[in-house]
Amino acid sequence: MKPLSLLTVSSELPEALAPLRDLALNLRWTWRRQAADLFRSLDPHAFVESGENPLAMLSQVPAGRLAEAAHDEAFLARMRSEMGDLGTYVGSGRWFQRTVPGAQGHGEGSTIAYFSMEFGITPTLPIYSGGLGILAGDHLKSASDLGVPLVAVGLLYQWGYFSQSLDRSGWQQEEYRLNDPSQLPVEPVREADGEQLTVSVTLPGGREVTIAVWVATVGRVPLLLLDTNLEVNDEAGRAITDRLYGGDHEHRIVQEIVLGIGGVRAVEAFSALTGAPAPTVFHLNEGHAGFSGLERVGRLMQGGAGFAESVAQVRAGTVFTTHTPVPAGIDRFDASQLRGHLDADESGISRLIPSLPVEAALALGIEEGGDVFNMAQLGFRIAQRANGVARLHGAVSRGMFQDLYPGFDVPEVPIGSVTNGVHRRTWTSAHMDDLYKKALGDVDISSLQDWSALSTLTDHELTETRDALRADLVTMARRHVKESWLRRGADEAELAWTDHILDPRALTIGFARRVSTYKRLTLMLSDPERLRRILLDEERPVQIVVAGKSHPADRPGKEFLQQLVQFADDHGVRHRIAFLPDYDIRMASVLIAGSDVWLNNPIRPEEASGTSGMKAVLNGSLTFSVSDGWWDEMRDDEAGWTIPTAEVEDQGQRDRIEAEALYEILEQSIVPLFYERDARGMQRGWMTKVRSSLVKIAPRITAARMVRDYVTDLYLPAARAASAFTADPALAGEFTAWKETIQREWHAVAVRGAELEGADGGAVRTGAEITLRADVELGALRDTDVLVEAVLGEIGPGDEIIEPQLIPLQREEDGRWVARFALTAPGRVGCTVRVTPQHPVLASRAELGLVTTA
Ligand SMILES: *Cc1c(COP(=O)(O)O)cnc(C)c1O
Fold first, then answer.
1. Dihedral-angle region of residue 110 (phi above 0 means left; psi in -120 to 50 means alpha; beta otherwise)
2. Distance (Å, rounded) from C-alpha 641 to C-alpha 370?
3. What is the secondary structure of 651-686 as a DSSP string?
4. Which of 178, 420, 425, 661 sits most deeply, having the most CB atoms within 10 A of its CB?
5. Residue 846 in contact with ligand 1 by CB distance below 6 A
6. In angstroms, what is the span from residue 551 Cα to ligand 1's centroid?
7. Of 91, 123, 146, which marks where a domain is finished?
8. Where are the alpha helices (H) located in 372-429, listed in sequence order?
């Protein structure tokens, strides 16, 4: 019988339980176990059925159970206690208020607007694909824990990122799920009249697209989510926020217009509505929101400022984080396509961003040659402060973008680094969290920097925890492998073997991340026979659990995946190696925590940071990694193992050498250490290493540390720089005029006749005073316009001065510029003199791209 119509029946929440809705709508429950447990205990079945989605489950709990809970004093007390805790958490001053002068009043002072194309906070809000999004989610959670006044902006997609399954041959299958807004933990932002807040953007041909603004609440941080799927929009307009990273370039540009331009409009409207201060700092997590800078330039110009002044002012308050060391990973658009969108009128002013001169704006991002608009370049031009996401990545980025700062050596390219981190509470298993509490006390760990008390954890405690986590992983893996085979067409009756795969006591290696070629999923398969021997060792077995999605358009990635799956399908090894389809936050938590060793073998230096290895560290899993991303700066033989990088050009040869090292370390070091037991059966050596990793590495890889670094190194300086402009309305004009003078007059700047005194014939003793004198011609410029510096340093290959020390020269009465110094270390040292522009608004010497050397 066919139904006449379909109805969704849901229970009404009794008045006494109304606070549950508020608890479900603040995503803090995702990192507070007691809150999640409260929902679970309301109805364990509905909790699981809803996909552990508290909001969705509330409408699925049978009315009888709700009525019962509404009269259950114990339940109500727990609920009230959670509400009380949330209230305290949201309302009390935290690290930011204690540390930053003038920030005591919660919600006062300057705010940071954080833009990202994706946010991975919880699987119940599927608006992310992987690492970048989860990083953004962790950023918000830690900003909330630390009390950093942040408002975030993203897109609300109608479809989540795909879920992955396999066909019989191991080829990836993709399936997209529709997001049901009523089941998502978001609420409409409402205007005074009760209507949902909307903003709009105008697309070419005068097509106006209306954007509805939703809010997801992440502890104390509001995350504004923009949604174009509205009846007032035409078909194409509604499809703008259809899915993450789907569609062509045109689709991507329009999404980025909505995120960047719509985002600025939404933040502004939200501030006006809530009375919150308008943001002074704008943080662009990757280049996708670069258009926000253009929108802000347009707004200042509307107020009467010139283009250059406006750019200077916008730059002061903007922070740009780049996330990829591979040029192919950067968003690059056809310049003419973008020109079409900016849509100049007869006088060259944009119809999309009122008051913005189109060609001047395009010039910020157009690559040499003129055909390509580069979003990273726009990021560097629109943000005075920029960073990579690990120390090595910062260095690689400086090399990659050196061309934007001609005349400067790579180390001086103004791109710093803030190493990524992961949100501790989110990524620490419950078992392990108990150990943190035991060792560190029940304190706010997010602002605790000394974790040395973790060294008091005993072998016994760690063993119990590690065994439990491994057992949880084995249980999960068995279930997933069975489900996967059912989907691949196997019959339940032939799958009894899946209940016995993997061994809860065997050394377990985890490998899970997006499957893209540079991450080299199949490096471990380089010598399949050797791998088999390692896995199948009778006495000291090794098992590997693998997961990861490949981007739908990445064919080589899918081929890697298929190779791995086909290896794991083999009857001889399928009990020792398993591929789990549909890698996601939830699977990651169990898989990463349960692995004894977390393997990471990208092609150095293509992994910007990597964060899964950090999640492993938090759980007492040991790192086994190429010296890339975060591990390059933290690698430590007492806390993990490093696969050496082969310095050979040929990629195939390099893979073979590095694979050889991988097997060697595994066979010679990792396996023996894992199976070494003392008289009491304890893994003493292993647990010593685990403790080292926890004490030395763990405190450095938290998102709390990362957010504190952002605040100190980037947000506060940016806020100060931006407020200098607002405090002094003449500053932008003065600075711009100064900059024009410098650019016009710089040709006359020259260094003549630098000489060293006290260095006879080029020979000096350490500690002996040397005097450097130089004649510097400045033409029309003043002394205060420039910085004259001695550049001193070791001579590297190519006769270049490497890692130079900079010593300022002062003008003396005779008109010459002088510095006195002594050299402390013996060796060959090069010395020269250079002149760069100097102004309080500049954040780096390379900013104007002007330098004159002797
Ligand atoms: C942590 C995480 C990632 C990112 O892992 P990397 O090591 O940075 O590649 C991707 N997906 C999920 C589900 C994660 O939890």
1. beta
2. 47
3. HHHHHHHHHHHHHHHIIIIIHHHHH---TTS--HHH
4. 420
5. no
6. 14
7. 91
8. 375-382, 391-400, 424-427
Same domain for 137 and 38?
A: no
CA distances from 503 to 23, 498, 542 (A): 39, 12, 9
User: Which residue shows structure tokens 């789990």?
Assistant: 580
Instruction: With H, G, I as helix, E, B as strand and everything else as coil, classify residue 270.
Output: helix
Rounded distance from Cα 159 to ligand 1 centre (Å):
20
> Could you tell me the distance, in angstroms and rounded to a whole number, from the CA of residue 591 to the centre of ligand 1?
11
- Cβ atoms of 275 and 105 closer than 8 Å: no
The residue type found at 219 is: G
The whole-angstrom separation of Cα 711 and Cα 722 is: 15
Q: Where in the sequence is the domain holding 76, given as residue range(s)?
A: 15-91
Show the tokens assigned to 519.
């991450």
Question: Which residues have CB under 8 Å from 391's CB, separation 6+?
Answer: 417, 419, 632, 633
Ligand 1 mutation pick, 134, 244, 606, max ligand atoms within 8 A of CB: 134
Q: Which two tokens stand for residue 455?
A: 């060294």
378 and 482 in a common domain: no
Instruction: Check pocket membership of 612 for ligand 1, CB cut-off 6 A.
Output: yes
- Per the structure, how many domains does the chain have? 4
Could you tell me which residues come within 8 angstroms of residue 479 by beta carbon, excluding any fewer than 6 positions away? none
Looking from the CA of 606 toward its CB, the CA atoms found within 13 Å total 14
pLDDT digits (tens, 9 = 90+) for 551-598: 999 999 999 999 999 999 999 999 999 999 999 999 999 999 999 999
How far, rounded to the nearest angstrom, does the alpha carbon of residue 565 sit from its chain's CA centroid? 29
C-alpha span between 527 and 530 (Å, rounded): 5
Dist CA 735 CA 745 (whole Å): 15
pLDDT tens-digit profile of 327-359?
A: 888 999 999 999 999 999 999 999 999 999 999
* Closest listed residue to residue 118, CA positions, set 102, 131, 105, 103: 131
Q: Are residues 202 and 349 in the same domain?
A: yes
**Structure tokens given for 670:** 């990792």
Task: Break the chain down into helix, strand, coil percent, rounded to 5.
Answer: 45, 20, 35
Q: Is residue 97 part of a domain?
A: no
Condensed to tens digits (0 to 9), the pLDDT of residues 32-44 reads 999 999 999 999 9
As to burial, measured by CB atoms within 10 angstroms (0-12 exposed, 13-18 middle, 19+ buried), residue 74 is exposed
Quickly count: other Cβ atoms within 10 Å of residue 727's Cβ: 9
For the chain, percent of residues with pLDDT exceeding 90: 86
